[in-house]
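request received
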Amino acid sequence: MFRNYFKIALRNLMKYKFISFINLFGLSVGLACCLLIFTYIRYEVSFDRFHKNADNIYRVQRTFNDPETGNMSLELGAVAPPFATLLENDFKDIKNITRFIPNGPTPLRYDDKMFNQDDVYWADERLFEIFSFDVSKGNPSTALKEPFSVMLTEEAAKKYFGGSDPMDKMIRMNNQFNFKVTGVFKPLPGNSHFHPEVMVSFSTLRDSAIYGEEQLRTNFGNNSFYTYLVLPEGSDPKRLEAQFPAFLNRHINDGGPYKASQYTALQLIKLTDIHLTSHRDDEIEENGDIKRVYIFSAIALFILLIACINYMNLSTARSVLRAKEIGIRKVVGAGKNELITQFLCESVVICWIAAIMAFIFTWIALPWLNSVSGQQLSGDALFQWNVLALILIFPFLVGIIAGIYPALFLSSFQPVRVLSGSLKVGGKSISFRQVLVVLQFSISIMLIICTAVVYQQLKYMQGKSLGFEKEHIITLNNNVALNENYTAFRNTLLADPNIKNAGRSSRIPSGRLLDASGSQISRGDSLAPTKADIKVVSVDEDFIPTYGITMLEGRNFRKNSAADTSSYLINEAAVRVLGLKSSQDAIGMAFQYGGRKGQLTGVFNDFHFESLHQRILPIVFRQSVGTDGYGNISVKVSGTNVPAALAHIESTWKKFLPEIPFEYRFLDENFEELYRAEMRQGSVFTIFTGIAIFIACLGLFGLSAFTITQRIKEIGIRKVLGASVKDIVFILSKDFMKLVLIAAIIAFPVAWYAMHNWLADFAYRIDISWGVFILAGIIAAIVAFATISLQAIKAAVANPVKSLRTE
Amino acid sequence: MIKITDLEKIYRTEDIETVALNKLSFEVKEGEFVAIMGPSGCGKSTLLNILGLLDDPDGGSFVFNNEEIAHYSESKRAQIRKRNIGFVFQSFNLIDELTVFENVELPLIYLNMKASERKEKVEEVLKKMQVMHRRNHYPQQLSGGQQQRVAVARAVVNNPKLILADEPTGNLDSSNGNEVMQLLTDLNEQGTTIIMVTHSEHDARYSHRIIRLLDGQMVLENSLI
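response:
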């Protein structure tokens, strides 16, 4: 019996080629979208699962909050250095603990091979006990034990040592320290939340020239140590977390009015949850987002739904063509269940063919999707057993979902009416088909609106004035070797007319504001602690003019003024949180920040130091005591000849720092990168919206062709009675256009709600305008009208005599 | 074999009520060949559909093989239909997407017969109907006479007790029409009961008895034996 079903399914597929093409193409694109998204989701949820211990590893994280209001001021993925030892001592449940610190781009050199090395980590030897590294040379349990030891990935080893054995060779860091190569390891796969290329032994940090034992033991302020612990199998991390407040109070006592647990907290996050759910201020690499996974899943399902609706619509629309077959089958003995099985078999067969096409589409589209979305999905991922099983099972489910309505509808035909020719497909079936068309266009219009809003927000973020001049600023990593010669370095830079200015700072705009200390401000004759959470940036006197930041009151730091090391500049937001009436009131006021007493000498404008995802925070600028605090140099160049300016910066760098590789970045590129996730989202939205509309239109095209065929006699009569082509096109399009209008009315509130929620993630966002909705409605209407018109005009210009003969 | 008593069928629209069968009663014995005649709209086809269990009556009794089936459900009717009744239509009603062999095979598929048994039975009946050489052709590739022979082959392939023929020669020329009537006569002689709706007095003469209908009622019954 099934052979007969498959046979007739394939023959019908061949007989009605146009409809078969619409169904197959729509379903295969829908399934391909699902397959692509499935591959993407599979990759996203696989992060860090390759570690043997993955289920029992947790990262220790830290938050800071306002002790009065409880408002969170800082959410960190890393903690201070003393915690690892203290946690291990206090909690016997902890089986193992390790930590590392990413060092940022670090100049490394071997012979004449010199690179600004990314992903250099200070890592302790226990890293290998907790994480599953594949160590190809050296002993993982001892390689990072001794100070001044270094391990490299195979790629990094090749970069520095070529084909020769790297073991025991010395590599020089920052032109200051030599490290012995004690091991080589394979890089962690793409689905890891951290990717060290070079690991320097953590024990080196005990050297006081680098960090110092005392700092490691007592510095609770430097929260840059990523700390991971292992709990016993089945242990509840919540139980351990519950003991953290007491633990903090036991170990941190800064003499302030609050207990430690009132303003700071520790949390545990499961290793495998970090990539999709952790969005701390200091993530090691850009993490994924569970929301994005949901959004993309919804889009894939929408597209599949549209394709299924096409199948339902076209199958029921062409039921007239199959009515005779159904009647005959019933007459010769087929029961309703047998017919339902037959039609379900047909839709499953079609879905399986579509699945094969989808597999090919996906394989072709994967590299392209990677380039658009920034993923690293491999074509091999499609040949995994669970993907192949999905390709086998999913079409079965889709076939049943898409086929159930046509199957029930077709199998309910009365053979008497069918065979006597008195069957008219209409009434309820048309209403249901209309509902399906409305649903398809609602989804399409929603996607158009979402795409438009994403792009409007992107445009807004990219175009919004940041409150300073971000163009033509080149940023360099400062180097300690430059400290003594910085003035000469700067003067040499400024000797070229293409260089406008150069300033130093601890952080640069586009980065995060993660440094903060307590502050005190004068209340009467003495200083009183404030509750204000003010972020600090160390800047020199040239930073403000370099960035074109506006001084609203008071003055900038003075050059070579020793007194200015106790001067503070604050922004307007800081004026507000300090409770000052105006910027003018701030000037001259006694102010203490992080234990250093001084006075407020200037107020600068609120500008966007961070991305527009973040609110403008209260900031204090202070000068660094000594020169260590300036990690960055920002150079303002003239826009007229950027290549010449760059060449001059490079030659100056090489003159002063011949041992350090020259690397630079443009600040505006940094800002663009902050919105990369949204840009990708925009691109993916556009692509999938286009696909959704295309499939919906294919369905509409097929459906209108059928409807018009059924009305061919009416068209003939109307033409004979004097109707023009325009009249006929209007009559035929009118009904469908009404459906698009209803679809728009349904789509508008849903899209508004979805985008309202999406925009909530941005501190600075657009207001969703009615124009977007109208535009989306018009686009959908034009596309639908153009689709229907293709058929309507064909019918309208046909010879009426011919159409009347078709009866 | 068939006994109908006071059978009624009424078609209703919002405004109009049309009585298709009006308290019709008659009996058909096993092995009989009965022709039903009457003008268009007299209720012939409605009667045939009810006798073929394709439609249910609105009133009266319908006994088939000593079983009252007037108000059986669709699925129960389908069960009786596929084991006992074969249909021959004026417009042949073959499935265009299936070959001659596959069309004839269809009733056996729904009886869940084994493939080898099906093949044997279909080939036997195709030979008998002289269309074996056309077994792999599609209906559109056959003449009207050949198509009707295939339709008869399909109707008899599962050896039904009753064949219902709705104007079986209506779309055929006289020579092909006579051939089909001869086929039905042969089947009847082999024991199959045949009820045939026809407009043709010529065809009706092949039967044993003619029932004449008018406005849903029997107006005359003549025996030709």
